[in-house]
């Protein structure tokens, strides 16, 4: 778990359903959200594969999984913390129903948990749930993390241990509900989770920051303790020291430890993550001219308290050793108790430092005589934080509507936004459609209602996401996405996105072959498309004209997995709706449509929920 070369946290492996089970519902909580990472999640949820590969491209193989997501996936995140991808991708439009922003009560409070709760179903076995508690957000962060997951089956009676977890899911649904949420929560209350290996005593779920739930670390005591936290605050570190009778070891980032007052570190052993780890990946990948340097740092959050009789309590999750985490934020912790060898504090210390306290992940930290001042940086960060919160809190959306453009081929986006009465103190806010390169950001006037119009947006690029940017002079300081309900979005938008990606006969048969495969080829999902095989004009020899055993594969699917035929029929109907029933299509040959009629009668009749 703690060998950075051998034991990397594999997000995808934790999400893969148990053997023989299928995903029924997935609910996630994260502080920040990266849409490219979210695109990769369906690969694990539906195809039982890890998240390796490139998911920035508009791969036809991703369509099937991503189209399922609105029915089964909800991701709750802090409003204003949805990252703006470097590249536009029309597949993002299929993920809009999956994301829900949560805005805390004030600018200094964060919705900060990192949790997954997943429901898996089986035709002949009891329903299972899995809870995954992480220290990382739903992003492609390469930092050093820690995570744990617990599996359990639904029983006939409520389980006391599971009630806090169910209350946490219920709290998130108070911001936006999802189909089947009541049953999801009711069954979750009856799950008997198994304790992870190595912790033979007990476990507890600790949601924090709402209702009666408070941070358990404020009351936790021990003889010795280890605190691993990327962010630290003097008050929190002093509180931890008061709760430990003997030794407190603090593991953090050098740049954060330097911000602590000298007296805070009195009688504390402090360590910073090794420079070789922070710089190692950029040294490996940054000098060949390919891509950006990917710095890896500390993101793990772990508190271990050693008590009597070798009993140790581990708290892992989203909580930093900061005042905000202890007093204000919405957080989530998993507490594991054990007295076995794997749970011992000294074993963890040896893994972090090396048995001779040399050659481990961390190194001894030498604190400067005075903390490093960063008052200017902190003032700017506070200014941005307050502006961002007030913008999200007080933004009045008087109008958000799309109408046909003059050319009748595209659409115009009309916005009337009221940002509230507050001034922005030398900062500027700009707004633009997310998925449209042809429209420059336009300024949102502070304290005044502003009318904005963005012209000639292609239907497949229409999005519920708006891009907000905060500028100081000529420098852009921050950018984020916000989901907005927009009137007038055409019902054909999803079909148009599908048609813009499956834009040739070869692409259609590539998708068809993919849906019929018994075993998913990992390389076909995450690798770049082969441009030589896709000709939008349809001039090359089509896969349909080659010796491809599609008829045999369709017969097998009809007898063994009729759901695959339903997926095929869905895409055929969407493409035909986009082009018109009687059109001469370069995408779906009429010969295939005649051929398909023989299979339509056995296609399952349950239709996907209609979405705009």
Mean pLDDT: 84
Second rung of CATH, namely the architecture of the largest domain = 2-Layer Sandwich
* Number of self-contained structural domains: 4
Cross-sheet strand order for the largest sheet: 8-14-13-12-9-10-11-15
Number of helices: 17
- Report helical residue fraction: 25-40%
Number of DSSP E strands: 22
Q: N-to-C terminal Cα separation, in Å?
A: 44 Å
- How would a textbook summarize the main sheet? 8 strands, mixed
| Low-pLDDT ranges | 281-294, 519-547, 606-611
Outline type: globular
The CATH class name of the largest domain reads Alpha Beta
Q: Look up the CATH topology of the largest domain.
A: Endonuclease, Chain A
Say what oligomer this is. Answer: single chain
Strand content: 15-25%
Protein name: PLD phosphodiesterase domain-containing protein
InterPro entries: PLD-like_cat
Characterise the protein shown here.
By secondary structure, this protein is of the alpha+beta class. The protein has four domains: 11-194, Endonuclease, Chain A, CATH 3.30.870; 216-278 and 297-373, Endonuclease Chain A (Endonuclease, Chain A); 376-483, Sandwich (Immunoglobulin-like), CATH 2.60.40; 502-600, no CATH class. The chain is built from 17 helices and 22 strands. It has helices at 11-15, 35-47, 60-72, 163-173, 181-188, 234-242, 254-257, 275-285, 323-327, 345-353, 375-394, 493-501, 505-516, 522-526, 550-560, 562-579, 590-600; strands spanning 22-30, 73-78, 99-102, 115-121, 128-134, 147-154, 191-193, 202-208, 222-228, 244-252, 269-273, 302-306, 312-317, 331-338, 362-364, 396-404, 411-418, 428-433, 442-444, 450-457, 465-472, 475-483. The strands form four sheets. It has an eight-stranded mixed sheet with strand order 8-14-13-12-9-10-11-15. Strand 4 (115-121) and strand 5 form a beta hairpin. Helix 4 (163-173) packs antiparallel against helix 5 (181-188), helix 12 (493-501) crosses helix 16 and helix 15 (550-560) crosses helix 16 (562-579). The longest helix has 20 residues, at 375-394. The protein starts with 10 loop residues before the first helix and ends in a 12-residue tail after the last helix. Residues 281-294, 519-547 and 606-611 have low confidence and may be disordered.
């Amino acid at each position: 778990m703690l060998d950075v070369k051998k034991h990397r946290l594999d997000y995808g492996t934790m999400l893969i359903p148990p053997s023989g089970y299928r995903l029924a519902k997935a609910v996630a909580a994260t502080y920040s959200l990266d849409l490219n990472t979210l695109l990769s999640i369906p690969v694990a949820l539906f195809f039982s594969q890890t998240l390796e590969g490139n998911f920035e491209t508009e791969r036809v193989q991703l369509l099937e999984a991503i189209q399922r997501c609105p029915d089964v996936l909800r991701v709750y995140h802090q409003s204003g913390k949805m990252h703006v991808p470097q590249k536009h991708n029309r597949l993002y439009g299929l993920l809009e129903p999956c994301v829900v922003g949560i805005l805390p009560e004030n600018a200094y409070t964060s919705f900060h948990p990192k949790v997954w709760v997943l429901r898996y179903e089986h035709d002949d076995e009891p329903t299972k749930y899995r809870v995954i508690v992480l220290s990382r957000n739903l992003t492609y962060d390469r930092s050093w993390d820690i995570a744990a997951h617990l599996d359990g089956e639904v029983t006939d009676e409520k389980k006391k241990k599971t009630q806090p977890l169910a209350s946490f899911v219920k709290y998130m649904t108070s911001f936006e509900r999802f189909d089947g949420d009541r049953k999801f929560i009711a069954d979750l209350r009856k799950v008997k989770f198994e304790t992870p290996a190595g912790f033979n005593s007990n476990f507890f779920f600790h949601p924090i920051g709402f209702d009666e739930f408070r941070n358990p670390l404020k009351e936790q005591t021990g003889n010795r303790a280890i605190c691993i936290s990327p962010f630290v605050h003097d008050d929190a570190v002093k509180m931890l020291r008061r709760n430990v009778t003997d030794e407190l070891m603090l593991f953090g980032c050098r740049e954060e430890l330097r911000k602590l007052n000298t007296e805070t570190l009195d009688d504390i052993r402090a360590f910073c993550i090794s420079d070789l780890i922070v710089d190692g990946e950029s040294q490996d990948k940054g000098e060949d001219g390919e891509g950006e340097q990917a710095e890896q740092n500390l993101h793990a959050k772990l508190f271990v308290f050693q008590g009597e009789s070798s009993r140790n309590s581990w708290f892992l999750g989203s909580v930093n050793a900061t005042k905000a985490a202890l007093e204000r934020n919405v957080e989530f912790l998993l507490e594991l108790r054990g007295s076995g060898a794997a749970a011992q504090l000294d074993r963890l210390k040896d893994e972090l430092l090396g048995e001779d306290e040399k050659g481990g992940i961390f190194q001894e930290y030498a604190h400067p005589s005075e903390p490093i001042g960063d008052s200017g940086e902190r003032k700017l960060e506070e200014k941005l934080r307050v502006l961002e919160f007030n913008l999200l809190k007080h933004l009045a959306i008087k109008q958000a509507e799309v109408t046909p453009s003059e050319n009748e081929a595209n659409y115009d986006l009309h916005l009337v936004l009221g940002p509230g009465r507050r001034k922005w103190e030398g900062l500027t806010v700009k707004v633009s459609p997310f998925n449209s390169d042809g429209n420059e950001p336009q300024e949102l006037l502070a304290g005044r209602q502003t009318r904005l119009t963005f012209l000639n947006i292609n239907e497949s690029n229409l999005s519920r996401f708006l891009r907000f940017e905060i500028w100081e002079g000529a420098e852009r300081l921050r950018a984020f996405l916000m989901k907005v309900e927009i009137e007038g979005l055409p019902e054909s938008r999803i079909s148009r996105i599908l048609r813009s990606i499956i834009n040739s006969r070869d692409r259609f048969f590539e998708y068809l072959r993919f849906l019929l495969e018994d075993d998913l080829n990992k390389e076909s999902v995450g690798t770049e498309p082969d441009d030589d095989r896709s000709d939008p004009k349809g001039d090359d020899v089509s896969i349909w004209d080659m010796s491809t055993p599609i008829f045999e594969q369709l017969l097998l699917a009809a007898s063994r997995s009729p759901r695959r035929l339903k997926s095929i029929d869905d895409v055929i109907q969407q493409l035909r709706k986009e082009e018109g029933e009687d059109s001469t299509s370069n995408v779906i040959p009429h010969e295939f449509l005649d051929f398909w009629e023989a299979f339509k009668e056995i296609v399952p009749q349950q239709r996907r929920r209609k979405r705009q």
